[in-house]
Amino acid sequence: MTRYIIRRLIGTIPTLFVVSLLIYSILLIAPGGPEDRFAQNPKVTAAAIDAFRKRWGLDQPIPVQYCRWVGICNPDGQGLGVFISDQGLPNFLPGFLGGGDNGVLHGDFGYSSSSGATVISLIGARVLPTAILAGVSLIIWILLAIGTGVLAAIRRYGKADTAITIFNYVGFSFPTFWLGLMLIIVFSEVFKLLPAGGMWDTRTVPIFGTDDYWAFVGKQPLTAFLDLGRHLILPVITLVFVNIAGDSRFVRAAMIDSLSQDYVRTARAKGVSERNVIYRHALRNALLPVVTNIALELPFLFAGAIATETIFSWPGMGLAYIQAVNNFDYPVLMGILVITAVVVVLANLLADILYAVVDPRISYG
Amino acid sequence: MASLVPPINGAMTEDLDPGGPDYDVQLESLGQWQIAWRRFRRHRMAMIGSALFFGMVIVGVVGPLILKYNYYNIPVPDVHVNAGRPPSLSHPFGETGRLQWDVLTLVVNGIRYSLLIGLIASAMGAVIGTIVGGVAGYFGGWTDTILMRIVDALLALPLLFVILVFTKFLGSGNWISVTIIFGLFEWLGIARLVRAVMLSLREEEYVDAARAAGISDRRIIFRHLVPNALSPIIVSTTLGVAGVIIGEAFISFLGFGVGFDTPTLGNILAGSLGFISQGNWWWAFFPGMAIVVIVLGINFMGDGLRDALDPRAKI
Question: What's the CA gap between B311 and B308, in Å, rounded?
C-alpha cells in the first residue's frame, strides 16, 4: 500500500510540472503585464521602467523567469547552479532543510501587484470562509444525495423516483449564479428575511477573521453564530440545489446495481428484514463508488464556488479570484491556480487510494 | 460509411421517419442508426427534451424576425421609469431599468446568440477532441503520454478559471472570439472518451487487416475507428452544448465575456444586477428561465440519446 501511494505521488510530478508550465504560459501571453500600468503615467520614465524590470527579474529570459518562479533557480542571480542552492543542497527543498526560500516550491507566491501584500497571506485569509461555506454545503448535499438516491432506487419507477428524477434534472439545469439571484430577489428583496450577501452583519459584528471578530465570538458566541448562520442559508441552498443532482443520480445507479446483486437475493431469502437488506447489505456496497466520486468533487467545491461567492459577496477564494482577474493581479491569479491544481491532483490521488482502501476487491499492485 | 449520416439528421429534425410503421412485420433490416432513432422516439423524456430544445432553436431563429422591436433600435418609451416597468400587454416580459428596453426582445435575441455560441463551441470541441483522442489512442506510446498529460494538466485547472483569464485578456467583447475560446477548452472530455475507445479497438483484427492492405494511418483512424466511437461523442457533444451555454452566461454575467452590443442570455443578466434592489425582478427572471429551459431540454435529450445509442440499455 505504501509503495502504491509513493508510486502514485511520484506519478503526479509530471502532471504538476505541465500544469505549472500551462499556468505560466497562459499568463505570459496575456496582455496587461506587470509594467503595463505605468504606460499611462507620464512621470514614469523609460529608465525607471527598465529599473523596475531589472528589479523584478523581468529582463531575464523566460525559462529563467519560470525557473525562478517555481523556486529552483536561485532568486538573486548569484546561485551556484540551476538545482543547487547557495548551501550546496537541492534548491527545491523547503528553506529549513537547506533549500531556498523563494518561489512556489518553497510556498512563496510573491506579492499581490494590486495591494502589495504577500499572495500567501491574501489567499490564507480566504481559506476559512470558503471552507465554512464548502463544508456546510458538502455535508448537507451528501446527506440529501444519499437519502434521495436510496429512496429513488428502492421505489424505482415509482412516484417518488419520478419526482426525485425531475427535481434532479431541474437542479442540474440551473445556472448557479442565476439561482443565487432569484433567491436574493425572493428572500431578501421581497420578503426581507435574509441578508442578500456578505458573511457578517457589518453594523453589529466586526470584520471576519480579525482579532476583534474572535474576541466578539468569545464574548457573544450565540450572536456571532446566528449571524453567520443567517448569512450562510442562501449560499448553501444555492450550492446544494445545483450540486445534489449529480450525486443523487450516482447513488441511485449504484444502489440499483447493488440491489440486483446475488448477495441481496441471498439476504432476502434468508429472511433478513427489508430495512437491513437495504441499509446493511446494499447501501454499504453502493457507497463505495460514491466515496470516490465525492473525493473527486472536493476540489471543485473548494475552488468552484466562484459563482456562489460572487453573487453573495462571500469573502472566499472564488471571490478573491474574480477580484484578481479584475485587477490584472497576476501573482494572486497564479497562486490560486497553482494551489487549486495541486488540490485537484491530490484529490484524484485520494480518490484512487480511498477506492483501494474501502473496496478489498481492488488490488493495488 | 457515408450512409451513416442521414438518419442521424433525421433524428434531429423529427419529421423524417426512416423506420416505417411499427406494426409492419415484414422482415426489414434496420441499420444501427434506425434502431437508435426508434428507441429515441419511444423515450418520453428525450422527446420532451427535444421539444424544449428545438422550440428554443425556433424562437432563436425566427423570433428576431417577427418581433415588434429590433434589438439595435428599440424606441424610447413614453413614460420614464428608472427601474423599468413590469410585464404588461405591450411588453410581456417587462422593460429593463434605465434605458427601458423591451426584455422580450433582449431574451429572444439572447437565445439566438447563446445557442449559436453553445453549438459552435461544442462542435469545435468535438472535432478537436476526436482528432487528439484518435491520434493519442491509435499511436500510443510517447504521443499518447504527452497528449494525455496535457489533458490531465488542463483538467487539473478549473476550466472556468482559465477561460475567465482568456476572455478577460484576449477576446473580451466579441462573441466569435468568446466562442473560439470555449471551443478550445471543450475538447478534453471527448479526447479522453475517444482515446479509451481507440485503445481497445486498435487491437481488433479488422484494423490489422486494414493496415496489411496498406491503408494510411489517417484513414484507419477516421474511417475505421472513429465511427465506432460516434455514440459517446454524440452524447458528450450534446451535453457539452448545455455546459457552454451556462459557462458563457456566467462569464458574460461577470462582465468578462461577450460585450453588450451582442445580446447573450448572460450579458442581459449582467445588466439586471443593479436593478434588483429597485424591485425589477423580470429583467433577471426571464433570461435565466430561458437558460434553464434550453439546458433542461439538452440534458433530457442527451440522456435519451445515451439510452438510444447504447445497444445494451433496455428501454
Answer: 7
